[in-house]
Amino acid sequence: MNWKEVNDDYIELIKSDMGKYEKDYRLTLEKVANSTAIYKGKPVPFLYHPMFYTEKDIENFTKIGDTLISITNKVTKRYLESKGFRQKFEFSPLLEELILVDNGYDINVPIGRFDLFYKDEDNFKFCELNTDGSSAMNEDNTIGEILLQTEALKDFSKEYNLSLFELIDRWVDDSVSIFRQWNNKIEKPNIAIVDFTESGTSKEFEVFKAAFIKKGYNTIIADPRDLKYRDGGLYFEDFKIDMVYRRIVTFELIEKANEIPDFIEAYKNKAFCSIGSIRSQVVHNKIIFKILHDEDTLEFLSEEERKFVKNHIPVTGLFKGDNKVYNEVLNNKDKYIMKPLDLNASQGVYAGRDLTQDEWKKRLDDSFNKDYLYQEFFTPFTREHILFEDNEIKVEEFRSIVGLFMYKEKFAGIYTRIGKNNIISGLTDYYTLPNILVK
């Protein structure tokens, strides 16, 4: 059994009683609209057709995640030990100083979402690595729980065993276990979920807050501007914070550093346990893909890891310097996609295939020598999915991007978005699909 066979079976099931399932789809739309699966004030768009994975896929994801963690741990170790290697990243003095602060535990990336285009164990290519601020666990779990209650998946479960990847309670347990390395004397740490109010995913934060509280931990959601460093501790009013679940993305933390002096000073002095720490930026910044291909990086990787980089990490370069780089990118429009070094949610990303040659040149002129990367364009793999549209059923091909959630350096679950454009993200037309393990 593979995912394609399962997917085809599901499509045939829907076709067998379109009226029944179309009616149920309308009810499901209402349930999602009234759930916590809300992004930027709107219900998360989804289909009445989840992403199916088999145990073989999970085996593949586990191996992929383990290999990438091994590689990135070696890169992070070299960053911490070698001033010369650090210069490759071109981080600001403040960011470098914060990265070098000892996080107090033995994990560089406590939480991550590694986004890739995936078909099978041999055919996959990474898109980007998210560490700080990794999100969308609630989207997957909430929509997944709703879809498991649909008529279609109830009927489908007569043939297959279906289950979700639980991502909320597992993170509560994993994050607290990391805190125990930092301090094993505080039995019930006070926890703050911290992000800038204007940037946070408030519905998801509330779900995590409730999960921490349910396990017995006093938990608040706080803007870092409201936190004070005094008497050797970090406080929100009279609430002393032991552990920060950091949802602030690092580029925003650095950009707004002058607004959060207390938070930064407390971080430097290790007044609280930050999960994750700023150290994860070594992996998060998109320049990591360029650095992984550098010869002096490849030389400290194993032979298997070198093959992994060459086959699965897109060739990437800094879009700056001499005209040779500029002309290579200009003259090969369909070969490249352009990405800012450190923005999230696909901000500033554009693909040559989406533009005319004149538009491409104009965008490149605006990006040259301005913290941009050029990266080989990879056409995402596709799957067929059911659509209910204009009172009829359609089966259409969608491109997909698969995010592997890594908790404590181990595979924990999946976040999938699908679309038809060259860029699949919340800034373009897309759907979020919950991920179902099929046995």
Question: Explain this structure to me?
Answer:
The chain has three domains: 3-62 and 106-165 and 399-438, no CATH class; 169-284, Rossmann fold (3-Layer(aba) Sandwich), CATH 3.40.50.1760; 315-377. It has 17 helices and 22 strands. It has helices spanning 3-16, 18-33, 55-81, 83-86, 93-99, 137-148, 151-156, 169-182, 202-214, 250-255, 261-268, 281-284, 287-293, 295-298, 303-312, 323-330, 357-367; strands at residues 38-39, 42-43, 51-54, 111-118, 124-130, 162-163, 191-194, 219-222, 228-230, 233-236, 239-241, 243-246, 273-275, 316-318, 336-340, 350-351, 372-376, 382-389, 392-407, 410-419, 431-433, 435-438. The strands form six sheets. Strands 4, 5, 18, 19, 20 and 21 form a six-stranded antiparallel beta sheet that branches. Strands 8-7-12-13 form a four-stranded parallel beta sheet, covered by helices on one side. A hairpin with a 2-residue loop joins strand 18 and strand 19 (392-407). The protein is globular, with a radius of gyration of 22 Å. The model has no long low-confidence stretch (mean pLDDT 94).
